[in-house]
Amino acid sequence: MLELNSVNSFYGKSHILFDVNCTLKRGEVLAILGRNGAGKSTLLKSIMGLVDVRDGSIHFEGNELTNTTSHRIAHQGLCFVPENRDIFEILSVEENLYISHNPASNWSINDIYSLFPRLKERRKNGGGNLSGGEQQMLAIARALVNDPKMLILDEPTEGLAPVIVEEIEKIISNVRSTGIPILLVEQNISVCRKVADKFIVLEQGQVVLEGSNQDLSDQTEKIEHYLAV
Amino acid sequence: MELFFFQLLNGLGLGVIYFLLSVGLTITFGLLNFVNFAHGAFYMVGAYVTFVIVSLTGNFWLALLIAPLVIGTLAIALEQSVVKFSYVLEHKYQILVTLGVALMLQELVIMIWGPIGKNVSPPSSLAGIIEIGDFIYPKYRAFVIAFSALIAIVVWWGLEKTKFGALVRAGSENAQMVGLLGVNITRLFSITFGLGGLLAGLAGVLAAPLRGADPFMGVEALGIAFIVVVIGGMGSFLGALVGGLVVGVMQSVMSSVWPEGASLMVYAAMAAVILSRPRGLFGRA
Amino acid sequence: MSLELKHCPILIAIALAAFLVLPSISLATEVLIFAIIALGCSILLGYAGLLSFGQAIFFGLGAYVASLSQIHLGVNFLVGLLIATAAGATVAALVGALAIRRQGIYFVMLTLAFTQLAFFVSYTLDEWTGGDNGLLDVPRNSVDIFGFEIAIDSSEKFYAFVAISFVLIFLGMIRITHSQFGRTLLAIKQNEERATALGYSVKWYKVLAFIFSGSITAYAGGMYALFLNFAPLSNVELIMSEHILIMAIIGGTGNVYGAVLGSLFLVVVGDMLSAFWERWLFLLGGILILTVFYMRGGLISGLYGVFEFLSQKFGSASTQKES
Amino acid sequence: MSILTTNRLTKSYGEFKAVTDVNLDVQPNTLHAVIGPNGAGKTTLFHCLTGVQRLTSGRILFDNKEISKLGPEKRSSLGMSRSFQVTSLFLEMTVRENLQIAALGVSSIDGFRFWSSSASTVKKTAAAVDYALETTGFENRAETIAGDLSHGQQRMLEVGMALAQQPKLILLDEPTSGMGVDDIPMISDLVRRLTKDITVLLIEHNMGIVLEISDKITVMQLGQILVEGTPNQIKNDQRVREAYLGGETEDA
Predict the structure, then answer these.
(1) Which residue of B92, B94, C274, C287 could cross-link C51, Cys pair, CB 3.0 to 4.6 Å?
(2) φ/ψ of residue D7, rounded to 5
(3) How does DSSP assign A29-59, residue by residue?
(4) Inter-chain residue contact B173 with A102, CB threshold 8 Å
(5) Domain D1-79+167-252 sits in CATH 3.40.50.300
(6) Domain spans of chain C?
(7) Chain C partners within 8 Å of D82 (Cβ)
(8) Distance between the two ends of chain C, CA-based, in angstroms?
(9) Where are the domains of chain D?
(10) Count H helices, E strands: chain C?
(11) What dotted CATH number matches C3-280?
């Protein structure tokens, strides 16, 4: 469904991504690994039209996305959950869902409430009053009601308690089982092992390693070499 | 005492007009982070369009209906042709561009109608006074208060209870994220800009029978709108309402105590608020 | 010193040319006075990066103080102008110190509020300022040095005085803009956060820029009142601030000569156009917009562009060798 | 004799504690690195050290002087310079002018000289500017406009500006951020060389560099110091591994 062909992205003058290729099929979860500053977020932003792609192309279901405006890309069904969640703090939980809601979506706001009872309890609360975990759930929920054909998650488990991480893992598997592919930036390898079908590792803006879920366990040492120590 | 009450009511009437004038400015600022120095011109042109419609048809109600739409359209046309290209520029250049627009509109008005102001008479049904016991009050001013209050409620409802309003509020917090939800942000911008202009035009319509239409009322109105927005807090609906009323009442009451000092006071208040509390009464940090 | 020597003939040439070329001597006087005023604005906008709607305060203040000193103190016109300059510097320090406590749009709003305050104060103090009517019949008291009287009682003499002031002030400002202070201001304008991290007390630089700007504007305002024999209330209006800004921007704020071009453009074109088209300000609004979008450096950068083009076209042999 | 110490440094935003009770101890002429995963509080710590943000509680001692309440410009006059994570230069000026402005920043008066041409003021900075040009290898590009430099070169100039101030301590905020692979050795060589004359406190994501060149490493997590030690100690520390990779890495 998604196809990136030697993508080169820039922030102003700095060249961040170098010839990145990857593909994603229906019902697949692709994890993008890499250190801070390796270009993971830039990759997602390139897909969403937030970063200048000077070379290469991005296609989704055959449509060219390269350098179109973000709202057009969102209209194609690419739903983005940014790293810092970007919940609208002055809007209530319900309003956050309401402005994103697309009647065509498989998830109605009520479905979301049964999926995330916690959000139902807090639906009148301001987005700014939510805990980190609740914000993350709301951010994912906000993407789900927007009728996603593909989900893009930027470090959804970052800074969250293990219980909530588990819950998010469940949601990811749940969405995946409906056939919606997911692009996942994640630094926590154990999460990737549980949910990802395949992975790529970015270093200094280049793909340095790719593999299947099995490789995540088999090549741990190699991957860790890229990620940290 | 009665005089005081009279002035208080006058201040209220002035205040609601100030609110209509300022609310568009504050919301465009909140959403676009854009300061429109041409905002006062919308108010002025609103008064002139009223003058034209009333002198052609003799029907104020028609002006009340049509003039705001004309100004809203004008605002959108300006946004599309000039203003939107300045969004990417620094604040100071945005100010200069809109300053140029304001100057052009003002001179255009003088070219057409001359530098001398025009009088607009209130509708005959609202001529005269209402008497409540001993207290008398001009009918038209009473109408302005009631009508503006109604509009204030409509604007509040639109901002708080509709999807469009929620998008505007969301956009003022994080426009990029709104775009990522599939909303065409540039269109949201121009519609909001147009609605802000429409409300300023409406303020001009309501003000026309009270103070006539003159080419320099735009500059004056811009100053007032800035005071209101600064005191109330940039980007805040409630700020525009409270700020408008505070400034209106302050000006009206002061003008019976120390007429020359009325304007002095409000500008001093503005400076004091910026220095001591830059976010105003209700502005977000 | 070489810097001043280089610019001296250009400035004298400008002053002479204004006298010889312009249709009237009063127009020439006005051009030079407003060139100083536009320069005062450029110091703030072009060097310190501060968009201020406060220039009318210093302009009006200079006019009032110079006039009052002639009427009530009876001091000679030179002393009067010096008092006006000192008043301008003091008020500019005050206004500047308060205004720079806020940044961006709030800074602009503050300067706007201060101008309006100055206007209403001037309006209210009508015993001193003449209120709406302005201060009428302002004399130019002659200077008396050792029994030797210098009076500027003709428009030629007054022009000569303005021209000398113009040359000296411009030389002074060229020195300042080419000094370490001028370069530091440019650095602050380009990247304030970095300048602070490098150890610069940014606010004092801005206040000093305000003082320079305010004092020369007040001096010019004083000259303008003596020129007209009249200090109108419109000097302290917000619209005056706007016109000064527009003048500086159209001329170009990054170079002292931009101020001359801006003044020349506004005063002369305004004079010519207003004769048969009173609403020429309409055009000015349009030009302002075009300048911001297409020629951020103003007329002066356009002029340099033309020079460069010409020298490339005709002097190509020498320049090509170098590159 | 440490050059920089912090005593229970704490910074909170409302209820959220970004940095809690951090005790840092930097020895002179060493390269001390602070690392940690996202959200560990490194940047907040850096802002507190440079004076961009006020501490909530605790103390900072620099060269035996308490500096906790001084603004950034005062700290730089005392001999503490910094680089920026996002390149922050005077983009319309030449490399040399950037360094001159930096060198003059430490004296409180020279920048105010409006009565003499800048050439005379600039002479004073010649030694400092030359030192910075030489150390960063910009001798041949001194007259290039900073905005025209490549990204990697801008990062080098970023460090050069801090050097031109001839500081006792230099704080580097992710000097390699956004740099191409090929440029990184250039920076790490430079940083290593610096400790001959001065002390370097380095905040960095790139573990490879940090392990290679640091004398001492402080690892932060969730606003607190997790471990401190030499590169070898850090390399083999299980807690560091977990902090970076999440739980369940025991099979590694």
Answers:
(1) B92
(2) -120, 105
(3) EEEEEE-TTSSHHHHHHHHTT-SEEEEEEEE
(4) no
(5) yes
(6) 3-280
(7) 197
(8) 30
(9) 1-79+167-252, 87-166
(10) 16, 2
(11) 1.10.3470
Interface of C with D (CB under 8 A): 3, 175-176, 178-184, 186-187, 190-191, 193-202, 204-205, 208, 212
Mean predicted confidence (pLDDT) in D154-173: 92
CA distances to C166, D33, D106, D239 from D229, in Å: 67, 10, 33, 13
Query: For each successive 10 residues of chain B (285 residues), what is the average pLDDT?
Result: 83 95 94 92 97 95 97 97 92 94 95 93 90 86 95 96 95 94 95 97 96 94 94 92 94 85 89 91 74
Could you tell me if residue A139 is left (phi over 0), alpha (psi between -120 and 50 degrees) or otherwise beta? alpha
Cα distance from C39 to chain B (closest Cα, Å)? Answer: 18
Half-sphere exposure of residue D177, counting CA atoms within 13 Å on the CB side?
Answer: 19
β-pair type (A206-212, A198-203): antiparallel
Task: Enumerate the residues of chain B whose CB falls inside 8 A of the CB of residue A50.
Answer: 176
Which residues of chain A fall short of a pLDDT of 70?
Answer: 228-229
**pLDDT digits 0-9 by tens, D222-233:** 889 999 999 999
Query: Rounded to the nearest 5 degrees, what angle is found at the Cα of C288, between the Cα atoms of C282 and C294?
Result: 135
Instruction: Determine the Cα–Cα distance for residues C223 and C213; give it in Å rounded to an integer.
Output: 16
Q: Could you tell me if A9 lies within 8 Å of chain D, comparing CB atoms?
A: no
Helix (H) / strand (E) element for B64: namely helix B60-81
Pick the CATH number of B2-116+135-276 from 1.10.620, 1.10.3470, 1.10.238, 2.60.40: 1.10.3470
Sketch out chain A's domains with CATH numbers: 2-77+149-228 (3.40.50.300), 85-148 (no CATH)
Interface predicted TM-score of the whole assembly (ipTM), two decimals = 0.87
Residue in chain D lying closest to A221 (CA)? D252
Segment C154-195, tens digit of pLDDT:
999 999 999 999 999 999 999 999 999 999 999 999 999 999
Structural domain boundaries of chain B? 2-116+135-276
